[in-house]
């Protein structure tokens, strides 16, 4: 590979074919995959010990030791079964969650562009091998330690390795480290170290990063501590009252401890972790990859969706449709990137004389270009773009005008220097050797950056005409580029000095039509209480046209558009009052996100470029495009869309609300049941039921209600009302919005129904304690079914199946001799069974009434 320099710029045009695919495979077998060794898996015994260190489980183990000490072996066996069951469920949920996250991590792994067999290929970064030619552009993450062989204004951010905030210029023979980020320019580098041999791999080998709890888990842990204190206080009261009634110390101690453990939903943290992991897996199945589990929870609170335009609201498949030169206009037919179509004027073919300035315009645009077109691999396939879609559209248009193809142009006019496009300059310039020894200057960029006297040497009349036509094209929703060029004699000065006194060649109008789903997606956002905001670097007229066509704003609301320069001139502007931003820079995107967050909104920000990275990181939910986005955007984001569809964000929000609703539903169910058990034990003696339930019976109820049934509630389908209500406030307490009212009402209902069944059984001379035990369990299972958002859905058959299984195990406790001896129960006959069934049906009805009495349908 060779390097050519002019002034301070160095071209980066690969001139060697790179490795062959066969050689790359041989090196992969020799050196191994280019990835950091995964963290040491947590051994099974460590997972088990972590579960047993839970404070409530330790209380349970203490109760088991106490029962063994006093000779109460049946209760000791029941407590042991509860410990084994809870530990098994907890470990299984941890393993399942880890596998889900590992699968998502593999799906969202970074990619790299390499030169193999003479052509660029995009491969998984894990498949990069020493000797690969890495093709680097703005926004790419360097896949391996490498040496630069070609460079053009290459600037690399090494802060993740060195801590230095200033990016570093890289030139030929310079070194690059894996994991660093290209923030400007482009280059070619040869990989020299991969995997654990790279700088990133050596650092990663020293790390053993732990996993922080999610905000929801922290709130639930705080709630659990409060509940534990309240529950223990009530159980101490129960213990004291029992001793006052003359019951034995051992019996009351074991029963009080068992009641305390049963009353607190100790399985809640495990249920939350599983719900988040399953939610992430469901999102992955719907083209949304969650990179951080807390994002699942946060999605349910999103109230502002800041979206870019190209590829998000629009198709992202650019096509040149109109051309303008000082000598006339032309229409360009054809779709996609296929070089098939023709140039016409008023529907008629152009003459050779009319085509001449148009071909000069498109030839210059094809030279000032880093993209390439890839033909279909199959006869029925489509042409695809490698590189920037806008630049690929220019190549397709040049082919339609019968300009020389890109390979011929590069051979005839080799590039010797360039000033790449960046978001501040808004233009790109390249210098090329001509056969006669002169230098050809090619420039393209935004009209406001090109159509100015320092850049162009054109009469004011032509500049005015060009600006007016550019404004008309932008107002029609086109993305407009101005193209200029000239020849210079023996030019050897820096590229920026060549950007003056050029000739205007014309304007190119590129269409990127709105997606068919854009309007319905934005309407779905509004129905869900989410405010959509458009932030783009395009012309304000183009942004407004797309906003109107998608329904983001109503036609005639021109005042809704605020440009970056206007924002700079008026920094005190209320950014939350604007719905369309145009010509924004990265800092302004960040300012918009901060303004909404300062107002208390939960923001989701979509993006695909390196300049979107800061805003994606600072938003509550950063959403990156997986197909066309840069690695910087993907790594900064919480959510990666594999289909680049904005509607997938709405789907993810729906999934987030589903997860949170299911956690709240389980909380209502579990806390109502636990509170009912305490109330039964406290109120029973006042009604003549001296010891309503024994310790083993309480623990058996806890095992059946918080185990199978509780986990099944985490898989409930989304409520039909989920996307027709406003998002929950981010600071809202977990028991707010009617949760504590519902659980108290249901706790009282379950208590009354259970005690009523026990008292009725005593009157009917039926074993009242066993009837009370069965009725309390049946009432809680009735509540579980009654709280369903979709009562007769078949989308979660696990819940009715788990309720049925729990009911069978409850019946087994009364009829299987071993369990009868263990739990101190006895058969209750048809009368007792009927009383328990009536309690369950009444509790189900109470849960349905409670759902209807509150406005929030969760």
Explain what this protein looks like in three dimensions:
By secondary structure, this protein is an alpha+beta fold. It has four domains: 122 residues, Distorted Sandwich (Calcium-transporting ATPase, cytoplasmic transduction domain A); 335 residues, Calcium-transporting ATPase, transmembrane domain, CATH 1.20.1110.10; 156 residues, HAD superfamily/HAD-like (Rossmann fold), CATH 3.40.50; 193 residues, Calcium-transporting ATPase, cytoplasmic domain N (3-Layer(aba) Sandwich), CATH 3.40.1110. The strands form five sheets. It has a nine-stranded antiparallel β-sheet with strand order 15-14-13-12-22-21-20-19-18. β27, α21 and β28 form a beta-alpha-beta unit. α3 runs antiparallel to α4 and α15 runs parallel beside α17.
Number of helices, where a helix is a run of at least 4 consecutive DSSP H or I residues: 28
- Quick one: how many beta strands? 28
Strand content: 15-25%
The CATH topology of the largest domain comes to Calcium-transporting ATPase, transmembrane domain
> Termini, distance in Å?
63 Å
How much helix, percentage-wise, in residues? 40-55%
Mean pLDDT: 82
Radius of gyration: 34 Å
CATH architectural name of the largest domain: Up-down Bundle
CATH top level label of the largest domain: Mainly Alpha
Major beta sheet, strand line-up: 15-14-13-12-22-21-20-19-18
- What is the assigned CATH homologous superfamily of the largest domain? Calcium-transporting ATPase, transmembrane domain
Shape assignment: elongated
Number of separate structural domains: 4
Uncertain runs: 1-14, 207-212
Look at the helices and sheets and give the structural class: alpha+beta
Q: Characterize the biggest β-sheet.
A: 9 strands, antiparallel
């Amino acid at each position: 590979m060779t390097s050519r320099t002019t002034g301070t710029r160095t071209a980066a045009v690969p001139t060697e074919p790179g490795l062959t695919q066969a050689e790359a495979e041989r090196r992969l077998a020799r050196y191994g995959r280019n990835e950091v060794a995964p963290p040491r898996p947590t051994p099974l015994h460590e997972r088990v010990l972590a579960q047993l260190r839970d404070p409530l489980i330790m209380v349970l183990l203490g109760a088991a030791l106490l029962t063994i000490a006093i000779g109460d072996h049946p209760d000791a066996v029941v407590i042991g079964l509860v410990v084994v069951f809870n530990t098994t469920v907890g470990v299984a949920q941890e393993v399942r969650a880890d596998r889900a996250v590992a699968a998502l991590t593999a799906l969202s792994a970074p990619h790299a562009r390499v030169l193999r067999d003479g052509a660029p290929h995009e491969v998984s970064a894990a498949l990069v091998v020493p000797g690969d030619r890495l093709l680097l552009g703005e926004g790419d993450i360097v896949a391996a330690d490498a040496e630069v062989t070609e460079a053009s204004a290459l600037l690399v951010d090494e802060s993740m390795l060195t801590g230095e905030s200033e990016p570093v210029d890289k030139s030929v023979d310079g070194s690059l480290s894996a994991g660093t980020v290209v923030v400007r320019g482009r280059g070619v580098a040869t990989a020299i170290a991969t995997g654990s041999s790279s700088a990133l791999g050596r650092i990663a080998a020293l790390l053993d990063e732990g996993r922080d709890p999610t905000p929801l888990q922290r709130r639930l842990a705080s709630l659990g501590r409060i509940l534990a204190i309240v529950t223990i206080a009530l159980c101490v009261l129960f213990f004291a009252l029992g001793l006052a009634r003359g019951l034995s110390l051992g019996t009351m101690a074991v029963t009080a401890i068992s009641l305390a453990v049963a009353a607190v939903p100790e399985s809640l943290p495990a249920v939350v972790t599983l719900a988040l992991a399953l939610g992430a897996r469901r999102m992955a199945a719907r083209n949304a990859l969650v990179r951080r589990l807390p994002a699942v929870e946060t999605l349910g609170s999103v109230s502002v969706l800041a979206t870019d335009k190209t590829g998000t609201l629009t198709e992202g498949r650019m096509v040149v449709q109109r051309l303008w030169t000082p000598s006339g206009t032309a229409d360009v037919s054809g779709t996609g990137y296929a070089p098939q179509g023709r140039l016409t004027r008023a529907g008629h073919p152009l003459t050779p004389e009319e085509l001449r300035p148009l071909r000069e315009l498109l030839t210059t645009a094809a030279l000032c270009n880093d993209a390439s077109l890839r033909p279909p691999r199959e006869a029925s396939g489509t042409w695809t773009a490698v590189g920037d879609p806008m630049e690929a559209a220019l190549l397709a248009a040049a082919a339609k005008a019968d300009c020389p193809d890109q390979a011929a142009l590069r051979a005839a006019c080799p590039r010797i220097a360039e000033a790449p496009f960046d978001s501040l300059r808004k233009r790109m310039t390249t210098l090329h050797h001509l056969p006669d020894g002169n230098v050809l200057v090619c420039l393209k960029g935004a009209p406001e950056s090109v159509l100015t006297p320092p850049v162009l040497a054109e009469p004011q009349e032509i500049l005015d005409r060009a600006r007016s036509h550019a404004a008309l094209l932008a107002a029609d929703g086109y993305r407009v580029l101005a193209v200029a060029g000239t020849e210079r004699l023996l030019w050897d000065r820096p590229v920026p000095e060549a950007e003056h006194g050029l000739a205007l060649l014309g304007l190119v109008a590129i269409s990127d039509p709105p997606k068919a789903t854009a309007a319905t997606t934005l309407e779905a956002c509004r129905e869900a209480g989410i405010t959509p905001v458009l932030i783009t670097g395009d012309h304000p007229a183009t942004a407004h046209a797309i906003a109107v066509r998608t329904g983001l704003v109503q036609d005639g609301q021109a005042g809704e558009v605020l440009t970056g320069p206007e924002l700079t001139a008026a920094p005190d502007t209320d950014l939350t009052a604007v719905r369309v931003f145009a010509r924004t820079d990265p800092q302004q995107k960040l300012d918009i996100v901060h303004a909404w967050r300062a107002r208390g909104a939960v923001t989701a920000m979509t993006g695909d470029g390196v300049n979107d990275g800061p805003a994606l990181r600072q938003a509550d939910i950063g959403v990156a495009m997986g197909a066309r986005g840069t690695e910087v955007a993907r790594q900064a984001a919480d959510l990666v869309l594999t289909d680049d569809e904005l509607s997938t964000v709405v789907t993810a929000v729906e999934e987030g609300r589903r997860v949170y609703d299911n956690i709240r539903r389980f909380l209502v169910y579990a806390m109502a049941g636990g509170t009912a058990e305490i109330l039964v034990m406290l109120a029973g003696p006042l009604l003549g039921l001296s010891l309503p339930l024994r310790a083993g019976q309480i623990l058996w109820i806890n095992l059946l209600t918080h185990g199978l049934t509780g986990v099944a509630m985490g898989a409930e389908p989304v409520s039909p009302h989920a996307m027709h209500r406003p998002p929950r406030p981010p600071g809202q307490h977990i028991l707010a919005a009617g949760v504590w009212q519902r659980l108290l009402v249901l706790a009282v209902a379950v208590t009354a129904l259970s005690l009523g069944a026990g008292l009725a059984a005593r009157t009917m001379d039926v074993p009242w304690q066993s009837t009370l035990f069965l009725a309390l369990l049946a009432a809680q299972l009735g509540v579980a079914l009654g709280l369903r958002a979709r009562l007769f859905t078949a989308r979660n058959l696990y819940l009715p199946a788990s309720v049925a299984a729990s009911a069978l195990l409850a019946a087994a406790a009364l009829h299987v001799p071993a369990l009868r001896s263990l739990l101190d129960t006895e058969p209750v006959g048809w009368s007792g069974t009927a009383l328990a069934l009536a309690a369950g049906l009444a509790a189900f009805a109470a849960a349905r009434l409670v759902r209807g009495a509150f406005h929030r349908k969760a």
